């Protein structure tokens, strides 16, 4: 009887020890911290994510869901899909990002050799969205305020509109639609991408519909404008 009691006690001790060990290992690995990246600013749909847009934090592994992207290499260079906005301090989730060359809606695909589709957010430019229709050509003007002086001049003429999208990623096909334009894509020569990037940084870009908007003309840069230095700066 005594030996059975002793054996039972030993068994209970072993079970208790194993329970404690399992609990310790569970807590240890659950609380093991890992590095994960979150957005350091609000990132809109179709914005290319740079390393400067990321912030590294350390969290217990148990607090991170399986669909959170851990590696920054899987984030940098990609963009949120059309209907997804990454809030500041938010995680990046699998399935919410895409590579610009694999865009499901084709916004970034080249239309023809030497041309790319350039995305413009309506909120970032001066334009009447209801005046825009797919296939028309527009003129781009740049206005810069510097040292209490305002300069404004033609930057590009006859830039063709590729597509117009609303915030849900749906194409807007006519000006009488109830959907609000969110992203405008322009068919732009690759050599002019750097100029437009620079223009958006230093001033306000306005879109004007010319009288010959539906004539088939090639986009040209106004090399005689007040901002011709942009061309040299973008090429350096």
What does this entry look like structurally?
By secondary structure, this protein is α+β, with helices and mostly antiparallel strands. It folds into 2 domains: 33-102, Antifreeze-like/N-acetylneuraminic acid synthase C-terminal domain (Type Iii Antifreeze Protein Isoform Hplc 12, Alpha-Beta Complex); 115-235. It is built from 3 helices and 10 strands; from the N terminus they run αββββββββαββα. The chain has helices spanning 2-30, 193-202, 229-235; strands at residues 33-39, 54-60, 78-80, 97-99, 115-121, 137-146, 149-166, 181-189, 204-208, 220-221. The strands form 3 sheets. Strands 5, 6, 7, 8, 9 and 10 form a 6-stranded antiparallel β-sheet that branches. β6 and β7 form a beta hairpin. α2 (193-202) packs across α3. The longest helix is centred in the N-terminal third of the chain and has 29 residues, at 2-30. The protein is elongated and about 105 Å long. Mean pLDDT is 77; it is low at 104-111.
Brief overview:
Helix 2 packs across helix 3.
Structural class: alpha+beta
Strand content: 25-35%
Distance from first to last alpha carbon:
93 Å
Query: Helix count?
Result: 3
Shape: elongated
Estimate the helix proportion, in percent: 10-25%
Radius of gyration from the CA trace?
A: 28 Å
- Can you summarize the main beta sheet? 6 strands, antiparallel
Mean pLDDT: 77
Q: How many beta-strand runs?
A: 10
Uncertain residue segments: 104-111
**Order of helical and strand elements:** HEEEEEEEEHEEH
The domain tally reads 2
């Amino acid at each position: 009887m005594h030996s059975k009691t002793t054996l039972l006690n030993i068994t209970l001790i072993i079970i208790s020890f194993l329970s404690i060990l399992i609990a310790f290992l569970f807590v240890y690995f659950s609380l093991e911290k890992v590095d994960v990246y979150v957005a350091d600013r609000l990132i809109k749909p179709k914005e290319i994510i740079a390393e400067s847009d990321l912030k590294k934090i350390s969290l217990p592994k148990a607090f991170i869901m399986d669909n959170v992207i851990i590696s920054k290499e899987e984030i940098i260079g990609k963009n949120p899909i059309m209907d997804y906005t990454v809030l500041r301090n938010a995680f990046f989730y699998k399935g919410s990002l895409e590579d610009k060359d694999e865009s499901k809606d084709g916004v970034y695909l080249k239309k023809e050799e030497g041309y790319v589709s350039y995305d413009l957010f309506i909120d970032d430019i001066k334009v009447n969205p209801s005046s825009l229709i797919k296939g028309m050509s527009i003129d781009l003007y740049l206005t810069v305020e510097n040292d209490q002086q305002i300069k404004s001049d033609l930057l590009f003429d006859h830039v063709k509109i590729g597509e117009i999208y609303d915030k849900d990623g749906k194409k807007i096909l006519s000006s009488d639609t109830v959907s609000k334009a969110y992203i405008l894509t322009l068919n732009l020569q690759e050599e002019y991408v750097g100029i437009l990037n620079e223009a958006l940084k230093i001033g306000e870009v306005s879109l004007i519909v010319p009288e010959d908007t539906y004539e088939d003309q090639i986009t040209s840069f106004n090399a005689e404008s007040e901002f011709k230095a942009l061309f040299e700066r973008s090429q350096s």
